[in-house]
Amino acid sequence: MLIVGLPWLGAIFAGRDRSDLLAFPPPLSIPAGYLRFSLWAVLAVLAAIVLIVGSWLRPAKSEAPDTVFTKARRRRRMPLWIFPALVWVAGWWLIAWRPMPGMEWARRHSFFPLWLGFIVAMNGVIEARSGSCLMRLSPGRWLGLFAGSAGFWWGFEWLNRFARNWHYLGAENFDAISYAVHATLCFSTVLPAVASVAGLLGTSERWNATMERRRAWPWLISIRARRLLFGGGMLALLGTGAWPRAFYPALWLAPLALYLGINVRRSPAGFAEEIARGNWRRAGTWMMAGLACGGFWEMWNFHSYPKWIYTVPGVDCWHVFEMPLLGYAGYWPFGLECLAAVEWISGRKLPEVTS
Q1: CB of 220 closer than 8 Å to CB of 279
Q2: Do the beta carbons of residue 107 and residue 99 sit within 8 Å?
Q3: What number is the average pLDDT over the span 284-299?
Q4: Quick one: which of 213, 209, 207, 221 has its CA closest to 61?
Q5: Spatial distance between the Cα atoms of 294 and 330, rounded to a whole number of angstroms
């Protein structure tokens, strides 16, 4: 409710035109007069990266991990269904990138089948490394992620209606209903994709043991931090609606701040409490999973059509595919938001698999 309502209130306060916020498909309105490079914005992003990476590189004072992974590694065969999944991915990748006569409809709708194949293939690799995967271990919860993922990403689409950081080229080829259906189907793959990559990272004993004894952030679960995060998240969402050119980072940071501001009151407080103790295993795993999926999203988007492009103030430079290089840092908080959403949808932690 806060994510939906506060930007709208901010837009009303600033007297912004709201006539196109509910348009389907979204109108293509690419801003031209925005600040493409700001040294202060670049330094702010770099400082955040240094803070996170510095915490990961610095071990905790106590070398005793919370959990000792002693399960012996075993050689397992790849499940047979991984091979048709990989062929499926390769086929849809070709369709997405190469215009072919008679395949225009398939190319326009290639996003969902391509990512569905990726998700199934990732579960196959997890199965080979650990002996099980979420898709087979709990198919109901796995399918539930698809349903929850659609609503999850529509929230970010709503915030982008104000910030206008990314724009869809080719969306004009859809009418309102077909766009809403197609977009919802595409958005349904977001959480399963990130969860699959996180599950694959979780099969690495070395990664798990290393990330469990990193630098602690005890301040994260303090009452003061909770109030600052919750209040700051609300103000940032208001600013997103009122002054989006200045508050556009709130698109990725405000939902996480609100979640942490609410969730640290609980016991246990989930990954916030783990980070406070120096256990970055789950948080770091999902952050890196978000970044890895971001790399695939941007790569497969590059030659696809429809596709998206970015106009990110201050850091719109050094592009890797369509995304500015420093923009990839946004996939770290997004990974944590995926973790929070998955646990909320599932009602509890996902079953963990280790090699």
Answers
A1: no
A2: yes
A3: 97
A4: 213
A5: 9
Q: What is the mean pLDDT of residues 178-195?
A: 97
Residue 70 has pLDDT above 90, yes or no: no
Render pLDDT for 167-180 as a digit per residue (tens, 0 to 9).
999 999 999 999 99
What is the reported pLDDT for 72?
40
- The yes-or-no verdict on residue 22 having pLDDT over 50 is yes
Q: For residue 87, give every residue at least 6 positions away whose Cβ sits within 8 Å of its Cβ, in sequence order, or none.
A: none
* Cut 0.70: pTM above it: yes
Closest to 322 (Cα-Cα) out of 98, 166, 170, 189: 166
Tokens at residue 307, please?
A: 């596709």
Helix (H) or strand (E) holding 264: none
User: Which residue's structure tokens are 């997890």?
Assistant: 126
Tell me what pLDDT residue 29 has: 86
Taking a C-beta distance cutoff of 8 angstroms, is the pair 118, 166 a contact? no
Residue 232 parent element (H or E)? helix 223-242
Instruction: In whole angstroms, give the CA distance from residue 259 to residue 241.
Output: 20
- The residue behind tokens 């999203």 is 297
Residue 308's contacts (CB-CB under 8 Å, 6 or more residues apart) are 166, 167, 168, 169, 301, 322
Cα–Cα dist 77/130, whole Å = 11
**CA–CA distance, 115 with 120 (Å, rounded to integer):** 9
User: Is 110 in contact with 100 (CB distance < 8 Å)?
Assistant: no
Distance CA 192, CA 203 (A): 17
Q: In terms of Cα–Cα distance, which of 35, 31, 39 is closest to 313? A: 35
- Reported confidence tier of residue 351, pLDDT bands at 50, 70, 90: low
Contact 205, 278 (CB under 8 A): no
> What does the radius of gyration of the chain's CA atoms come to, in whole angstroms?
21
Q: Give me the percent of the chain exceeding a pLDDT of 70.
A: 91
Using the predicted structure, report yes or no on whether residue 146 has a pLDDT greater than 60: yes
